[in-house]
Amino acid sequence: MSATGSIQSPAQTAAVLAGGPFVHLDGALHASYRTKDFASAVHFLDGVAEVADAEGHHPDVELGYGTVTFRLRSHDLGGVTERDLRLALRIQALGNELGAEGVPVTPARYDVAIDCTDADSIRQFWRVGLGYVELPADGDGDVDLVDPRGHGPRVWFQHMEIARTERNRIHLDVYVPGDLAEERVRAIALAGGTLLTDEHAPEWWVLADVEGNELCVCTSSY
Questions:
Q1: Pairing mode, if any, of strands 143-146 and 170-175?
Q2: Biggest CA-to-CA distance, the chain
Q3: What CATH number does residue 85 fall under?
Q4: Which of 188-197's residues contact partners 24+ apart within 8 Å by CB, and which partners?
């Protein structure tokens, strides 16, 4: 594994995570476990809390009846580091010890993209209407909108020099793990979609339904 402070890409973490339930997407590690009941899920989570305290690094957690879901990310650095990989392996070991079953999951991130000629003139409308907050986009001077509760999709604004009137000006982006992206594209085509372009693959593919509404299947490089 790499230096603790070094951000790792999915390609770099693949060997470490191989065979386990953790999946790397969108700058985080995701995994879900199933246990026999709520009490056993709490017991598993108690053990993870002890491990996390010992590591000095803590996951985001969702607890349900017989389920525990983890999201690991080095928030101070904005991605996955050795701290996350080390904690993931310790969670896996504890899950094996306690009989918690790793559940195959396909994590995803959903964005709404709005075509516009002047993002500043419309951003506040969407911020107020959705109850979102502004978030500077990575290094390009743009500003996205995000749900402060962490549930809704991110909204970003795609600059157009000339307003588009021949197509919808709002489309959806779905981010999936890189090794599953082409399978998702094929499945969409079988469901009636049309591939508009793959010129940017494997970063993203652009597809449309039979009425021309667009969906981009995207992958994450970090």
A1: unpaired
A2: 59
A3: 3.30.1360.20
A4: 188/215, 188/217
